[in-house]
Specification:
Helix content is 36%, strand content 21%. The protein is an alpha+beta fold and 670 residues long. The structure holds 8-methoxy-2,3-dimethylquinoxalin-5-ol (I6G). 8-methoxy-2,3-dimethylquinoxalin-5-ol is lined by residues 83-85, 115, 117, 122, 175, 227-228, 290, 309, 312.
């Protein structure tokens, strides 16, 4: 059946609308319609295209996964070479770069455009009359591989440009990457499908982009952010790099939300420090900051040196992955008896600190890595996260290595180890008989987010358990100044401070008390849910699995852990003893009813004078609000304390309501 004009027009309209909403969602992070409405339009287009296959075009939003697997990638020659960037490894090198630019141009305070350097793969995409026709890898800079069919599957890449003044030919260049959250999800999926995991998001992105079957690529959470142009025909380009980038954004291309225009060296180094500080809270991995001379005329004047522009530099952060040697493996016992193999390493600088230990997670991970003692390994440390071994360099394996064997007994109390069905975790069966578990349980109880016993550090707890002064959390409240003074290096004043801190900690909240008990998999958020749902400790103790499942965020495993915990006599004895020793909290009278802020999402930034950020978060959560780490179009309010940083700029850009501290306190008190 031939399609009528009405059908042809409807298909055209649907494509335009879907393209528009795609760009609103992916490029601007600012959806206009709910997902359900998008899905409805999408299905309508799919149905019409199924009825009239002759009307299917390659730039239709339904055609992201169009073609069948390739035999190999063909080559594409770049019309304008894809260059690389020179690196600066420290501030001196960055200053030399800026000085050189000033000398060559004769301008003292140069204006630079800056943005974080994403840790992904450079890709060039060609649009003809606004339609995506080709995508290529960087390759050797002159010739790359044709990965068009794979790039088409990336939702943040528009298949059609939008807006006015679309040039006949436009090549955009940028970085294809996988976000940190996407990487975690992908690796979980790889494990559950029995596949191999990726060592880091960059490897995952590279592996995903070089798939011959676009159906596989389509299942990977690839994203793209653009930072430049290649061949452009039929457009008058602006005189500044930052304006070219804004122009690209106007055409629907996603660009870095962190970009900035900076004047002179001091602003550049301040920007570097700000991005370095926020590195871990960005949703993707970056390995430095790229600075470009903003004036295109100046860029042209500066030119290139050995295939790198003289007008740009990548000022790198300290490496997060480095090579070292595995010297030994020790097994540590955690609070719940879980045994963790810990790698002892030849000390090495990574991410700006010296590391000599890294986690190996569990025996399955050791087998997966195929690691042996004596091997050269790659370790990774991102921010405050515990360093981990991510890969073995097998080609560097020496003749004599030692296989790592699974222990059969607890290294501390010699109890038997048990392996839980379906899980990789080995657990000591000693319970509180095991000194290591006792120490960890008490450390957890005393921690800031639990009972917040100031001055009671890990070493001191270790010593108290070693000499038999404390065997469980309740024993802490039987301590006296004279008993404490008998310990090594404990002066009268310190002992008195600890007794005072213990006394002070007795007044707590139900949430903190539940959290402090250390029930397996009951973190702060679950403890809060339990406290607000049930209101009293008694009600939580009496709850069966069925009623626990009614609590938001509690699933069958956690429900079972909670019931099992309260069924154990020794746990109930400790709770009774704590209450006898006058640990107290106000009953959670806000139970159930207090969901005044339900459905609202808050982000907190800067310093508040009346509350810590943790306290502000808890207060919001106790009123039913969600507290997120970064600002997006879905944020309801940004709470901005002193020195709010870039989150405030982003909120302003997105039109998110901003509360100062006074307004925020009113919201809480209302
Ligand atoms: O590899 C790169 C990452 C980021 C770049 C780049 C960039 O700009 C933000 N810019 C250029 C010009 C080049 N590589 C060659």
């Amino acid at each position: 059946m031939r399609a009528s004009q009405k059908v042809t027009d409807r298909i055209k309209r649907l494509r335009e609308e879907l393209n528009y909403h795609n760009i609103r969602y992916y490029t601007f992070d600012d959806p206009e319609i709910p997902d359900s409405e998008y899905d409805r339009l999408f299905r309508e287009l799919q149905d019409l295209e199924a009825q009239y296959p002759e009307l299917v075009t390659t730039d239709s939003p339904t055609q992201r996964i169009g073609s069948s697997p390739l035999e190999s990638f063909s080559e594409i020659e770049h019309g304008v070479p894809m260059l690389s960037l020179a690196n600066a490894m420290n501030e001196d090198e960055f200053r030399s770069f800026a000085r050189r630019v000033s000398e060559l141009t004769g301008v003292k305070d140069i204006e630079f455009a800056a943005e974080p350097k994403l840790d992904g793969l450079a890709v060039s995409i060609r649009y003809e009359d606004g339609k995506l026709v080709q995508a290529a890898t960087r390759g050797d800079g002159n010739t790359g591989e044709d990965i068009t069919q794979n790039v088409r599957t990336i939702h943040t890449v528009p298949l059609r440009l939008t807006g006015k003044g679309i040039p006949p030919i436009l090549e955009v260049r940028g970085e294809v990457f996988i976000s940190s959250a996407g990487f975690e999800e992908l690796n979980k999926k790889m494990i559950s499908n029995g596949g191999k995991t990726f060592a880091n998001p960059r490897n995952a992105a590279a592996g995903s982009l070089r798939q011959l079957d676009p159906k596989i690529t389509a299942e990977r959470p690839l994203e793209m952010i653009c930072y430049g142009i290649g061949v452009v025909n039929g457009a008058k380009l602006p005189a500044f790099y930052s304006e070219i980038i804004d122009w690209l954004q106007g055409l629907g291309i996603r660009i870095s939300p962190e970009r900035a225009v900076l004047n002179g060296l001091d602003q550049c180094t301040a920007y570097y420090r700000d991005i370095a500080e926020r590195r871990e809270s960005l949703p993707y991995e970056i390995d430095g900051v790229v600075y470009k001379v903003n004036s295109i005329a100046m860029q042209e004047e500066l030119g290139f040196i050995s295939r790198a522009p003289r007008w740009a530099i990548a000022y790198k952060f300290p490496a997060q992955e480095v090579m070292t040697v595995l010297l030994a493996v020790e097994f540590q016992v955690g609070r719940t008896g879980a045994i963790t193999p810990v790698a002892r390493l030849e000390p090495v600088a990574v991410g700006g600190v010296i590391v000599s230990n890294a986690t190996l997670h569990n025996m399955d991970e050791i087998r997966r890595l195929g690691v042996r003692i004596g091997d050269t390994v790659i370790i990774r440390r991102a921010g405050d996260v515990i360093p981990k071994v991510v890969r073995v360099i097998v080609s560097r394996r020496p003749d004599k290595t030692k296989v790592i064997r699974t222990p059969s007994r607890c290294p501390v109390c010699k109890s038997e180890l048990q392996k839980e069905e379906g899980l990789s975790i080995l657990r000591c069966s000693g319970g509180l008989y095991c000194e290591a578990q006792r120490k960890e349980a008490i450390k957890h109880f005393a921690a800031r987010k639990a009972m917040n016993i100031e001055g009671l550090g890990d070493k001191l707890i270790g010593q108290m358990v070693d000499v038999g002064l404390v065997n469980n959390p309740a024993d802490l409240y039987s301590l006296t100044q004279s008993k404490l003074s008998d310990l090594d290096r404990m002066g009268d004043k310190s002992a008195a401070n600890i007794i005072e801190a213990l006394q002070k900690s007795k007044q707590t909240t139900l949430q903190k008390f539940i959290y402090a008990l250390g029930i397996r998999e009951v973190g702060e958020a679950t403890a809060l849910s339990l406290a607000t749902h049930f209101g009293t400790l008694d009600a939580i103790i009496k709850a069966d699995e069925e009623s626990l499942l009614e609590v938001p965020d509690i699933g069958p495993v956690v429900a079972k852990n909670i019931v099992t915990f309260f069924r154990q006599k020794h746990n109930m004895d400790v709770i009774d003893s704590l209450i006898n020793k006058e640990v107290r909290w106000a009953e959670q009278t806000i139970a159930l009813s207090n969901t005044r802020l339900k459905g609202l999402t808050f982000v907190i930034t800067g310093t508040l004078s009346a509350l810590s950020r943790d306290e502000a978060r808890e207060a919001l959560q106790s009123l039913g609000a969600r507290v997120a780490g970064s600002v997006s179009a879905r944020t309801s309010y940004l709470v901005a304390g002193d020195k709010p940083g870039s989150k405030k700029d982003k909120a302003e850009k997105l039109g998110v309501s901003i509360l100062d501290e006074k307004q925020f306190m009113k919201v809480l008190e209302n």
